[in-house]
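Figure 3 (text version): structure tokens given as input.
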């Protein structure tokens, strides 16, 4: 009887501990997983990349690379979840000294990385069963994307550009979320053989790649205005199939933050339809 009472007490204590978890999510790719597992009631704050994923009243604590220890600690969280990009280190050290757990989760660019991240977040949020169910949904979605690809159609060459005023345009090479999304959408990335990560290259090099489609974030295109204005800004692109056909397509920029995520998969599915007009 005493053993049963002790076991019951321990179970109640553990349950109370799980229920009182207070999480700060420093990354949209983490917040979307927490939401998908139904654990959003554990969130007490998020970083700015997650702003669109939470209710209006949720505290937003700036950018995940520039976190403030004072702001975080004042919310009395039990743990901070983020990628290896969150910081600065001095802030993370202060947070840990205050007794708050700092957990760095996988932020890789592959489907396997996403599955690992789901498992990690599920364990930290004490929602392991929901994590297993979400992993199954991800696998099913990837299978569906692969099934819907038009294998008999010649693959389009899609070049992702990151454009900032006053600086050379960057292309997304291999080991980037943009590259993973392009490939999941059934296209090829001509920059993957030339560069790794996001790197600036010359306009002449872009022309040599002869992309069929230029991919930009929605925010970038809204700042530029239109495909015509992009070609005015980068006239050499007119010597590519993308430029000749004014084939400029957008992707939600949040799908590219923090590694391949749930939003990335949704965008890959949508872009497959756009690339091949299905």
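Below: residues designed for each position.
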């Amino acid at each position: 009887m005493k053993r049963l009472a002790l076991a019951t007490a321990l179970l109640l204590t553990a349950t109370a501990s799980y229920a009182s978890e207070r999480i700060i999510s420093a990354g949209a790719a983490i917040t979307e997983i927490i939401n998908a597992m139904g654990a959003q009631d554990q969130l007490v704050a998020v970083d700015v990349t997650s702003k669109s994923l939470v209710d209006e009243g949720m505290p937003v604590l700036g950018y995940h690379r520039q976190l403030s220890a004072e702001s975080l600690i004042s919310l009395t969280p039990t743990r901070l979840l983020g990628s290896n990009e969150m910081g600065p280190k001095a802030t993370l050290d202060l947070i840990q000294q205050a007794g708050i757990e700092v957990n760095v989760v996988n932020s890789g660019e592959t489907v396997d990385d996403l599955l690992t991240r789901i498992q990690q977040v599920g364990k930290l949020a004490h929602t392991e069963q929901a994590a297993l169910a979400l992993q199954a949904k991800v696998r099913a979605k990837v299978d569906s994307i692969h099934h819907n690809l038009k294998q008999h159609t010649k693959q389009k060459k899609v070049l992702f550009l990151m454009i900032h005023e006053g600086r050379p345009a960057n292309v997304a090479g291999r080991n980037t979320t943009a590259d993973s999304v392009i490939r999941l959408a059934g296209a090829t990335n001509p920059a993957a053989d030339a560069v790794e990560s996001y790197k600036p290259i010359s306009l002449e090099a872009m022309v040599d790649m002869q992309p069929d489609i230029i991919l930009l974030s929605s925010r970038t295109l809204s700042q530029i205005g239109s495909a015509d204005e992009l070609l005015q800004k980068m006239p050499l692109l007119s010597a590519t199939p993308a430029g000749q056909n004014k084939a400029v397509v957008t992707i939600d920029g949040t799908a590219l933050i923090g590694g391949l995520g749930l939003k990335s998969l949704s965008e890959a599915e949508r872009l497959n339809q756009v690339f091949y007009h299905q």
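DSSP finds twelve helices and nine strands in the chain.
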